[in-house]
Amino acid sequence: MSYDAIIIGAGLNGLTAAAYLARAGRRVLVLERRDAIGGLAATEELIPGFRFDTCLHDVGWIPPGLLRELRLERHGLELLRSDIAVFAPDGDGGGLTLGRGARAADAVRALSPRDAEKWGEFNALMSRLARVLAALYDEEPPRPTSAATRDLLALGLLGLRIRSLGRRGMVELLRMLPMPVADLLDDWFENDALKGVLAGRGVTELLQGPRSSGTSFVLLHHYLGSDGDGLRGRTAVRGGAGRLAEALAAAAREHGAEVRCGADVARIIVNDGSATGVVLRDGTEITAGQVLSSADPRRTLLELGDPLELDPDFVRATRNFRYRGATARVHLALGELPRFRGLKGHAPLTGTISIAPNVNYLERAYDDAKHGGVSGRPYLEASIPSLLDPSLSPAGQHVLSISVQYAPYRLNGGWTAERREALADAAIATLASYAPNLPDAILDRRVLSPADLEQEYGAPEGSLDHGELTLDQILFMRPVAGWAHYRTPIHNLFLCGAGTHPGGRVAGGAGRLAAGAVLRKAR
What we know:
Elements: E1 2-8, H1 12-23, E2 28-32, E3 43-47, E4 50-53, H2 64-70, E5 79-80, E6 86-89, E7 95-98, H3 101-111, H4 113-137, H5 149-163, H6 166-176, H7 181-188, H8 192-203, H9 215-220, E8 236-237, H10 242-254, E9 258-261, E10 265-271, E11 274-280, E12 285-293, H11 297-304, H12 312-319, E13 328-334, E14 352-355, H13 359-370, E15 379-383, E16 398-405, H14 417-432, H15 438-441, E17 442-448, H16 450-457, E18 493-495, H17 509-521
Parallel strand pairs: 1-2, 1-12, 2-9, 6-14, 12-18
Antiparallel strand pairs: 3-4, 5-8, 6-7, 10-11, 11-12, 13-16, 13-17, 14-15, 15-16
Helix pairs in contact: 1-10, 1-17, 3-4, 7-8, 8-13
């Protein structure tokens, strides 16, 4: 049987592309290697009775247009939002809780009256800049060298958006993007704890430190969807991130798309320079008018495809696309909540629990990873999703997930079971220095290294973004300059995964835009 389009991978982007193509009347088949959909957004019962978002701490910003166009709420999606963005314990019986509005300003004021005066202005500026970023992420990246009318109009619109920021806003945008996040925060604030929390957001899932160039750009992503009064909190889904994948699959199936699990694509069929289908691992051949891959660019083009079909310069550029995963995941089943010294109530624990006491702490953690080692004192981002969604764990018990940095994919000596468990021990000990009851509260645990994330979930080199989110790997340079608009040198082969614009921090964004590119090509 032949299809109009085959999509490789049933993660968020693959399913999003399927939903849009099917809605446009295309006959679509989605092929997923694993036995369940979701990819990196999988929610799994890793420990009997306890369900975890296995790979993702946060599904990221979901474009409002995607939610509206695919009517995901009608397909069972329920987003859960906490009033708390971040809780950062200080080890002395206190800590910093950043929510929204006046309460966050009061929390900052308790640390530094001067910083409290700047807090509102900083958030307002970051939110305004993030709105420009959101607009960029809602459409194909601009083509700065194209003379086509459509591309010239897009560049003109981008210029108008930047000009709408005003003189100061334009200067701040151009100045900020290449800045190390540590330098940006030094310009605004004096308190180490506040700068530590914000700097951590600038290096999340990057093999870079707070003094690395371009990390201010990553911090800006945490203001996508913000209304101007603080950081955007973690985006959670009732039932786990996997429910977002299920809603997308339902939207695709509603219009006739077929989603097939346990279907491992071994090769993309290319005839006379054009993709005409795929061959599965079991030898089954399936033909299609177009093939879209949500796998990473290197795997799609150089492993599933034949590099001999491609120009050597393009092959070299694809090989040089950087992934460099640096995050491990530790999942804990808890018999009781962690009790942080001095914390009254559990409301702050509904946000992200951040262990980044100051910028120097983050930089030292990065120093270990620069030389191929695991951070001795790691940067942690933890969450307790069962506080917002009790269905994830048995009554009175909880799930706690920790993202651990830095855990480099290319670890000296490689990842072994012993080194993976040692990393978990270090993460738990670090968190227990703030919540002493934690070790005794643990009923069981599961640990995933970057190598595990690659092997089981398809995260290339453990990169949850399918490629580093750096200034030389965004917009019209993601993944390769000249080929950043979902098309590839192989006719009718498209990329629709997070290795393309806008990257992995916009849920379904690449799949939505790739589907649009496919549909425009047919006009």
